[in-house]
Amino acid sequence: MFHEHTLAFAWASSDPEPRAGIQERFETVADVMVEAFDKLGIDARIGELPGEYCPGQWSVNVGGRVKVMGVGQRLIRGAAHVGGVVVVDDGERIRDVLIPVYRALELDWDPRTSGALADRAPGLDNAKVIAAIIAALNQRFDLVPGELPASVIENARSLLPEHLPQVA
Questions:
Q1: Quick check: helix, strand or coil at residue 11?
Q2: Residues spanned by the domain of 86
Q3: pLDDT of the residue at 162
Q4: Cβ distance 101 to 90 under 8 Å?
Q5: Buried-state track 41-57, b at ≥16 Cβ within 10 A, e below 16
Q6: Strands (E), 15-98
Q7: Prediction pTM value
Q8: Is the pLDDT of residue 2 over 90?
């Protein structure tokens, strides 16, 4: 997650031949996001934009102008993990961070290709976008509500100090 107005997502699945499903997993995630964003009144499209950060064929953009969702995959023997980020609001913060990074790496990037869903649909917040994504997922899959065991939550909380910035 970049900041509090971004959503990180992950989908892990067992797969005896994970390489064979790379394309299908990318397509599924991108299609779900487009369906969700369309329901929110956003002209969402799949495809890489010239000059986008972390370029990818399965990025989702708004109106063919600004990237709002990036996705990647990691494969291991017997499993696949698809993960990414949706920028809901405050897209300028993404640009502010990426400008010096791309400059230092001497990589081409057009900051105008970076944005947020709320730039095109004011009033959107994380909760509305999450609800739309869950609804789109529910149309494709039989979702079953569940909760992580308390031990997992406690373990995650105990690890927080190692992963949060230390403020002086």
A1: strand
A2: 6-163
A3: 87
A4: no
A5: ebebbbeebeebbebbe
A6: 44-46, 60-62, 66-76, 79-87
A7: 0.88
A8: no
The H or E element containing residue 81 is strand 79-87
AA letter at 125: D
Give 13-66 pLDDT, tens digit per residue: 999 999 999 999 999 999 999 999 999 999 999 999 999 999 999 999 999 999
| Distance from chain centroid for Cα 107 | 22
**What is the Cα–Cα distance from 136 to 35, expressed in whole angstroms?**
6
Per residue in 133-165, pLDDT (tens digit) is 999 999 999 999 899 999 999 999 999 888 877
Cβ distance 128 to 40 under 8 Å? Answer: yes
The token pair at 8 is 């990180």
Q: What is the CATH number of the domain that holds 123?
A: 3.30.930.10
Q: How many domains does the chain have?
A: 1
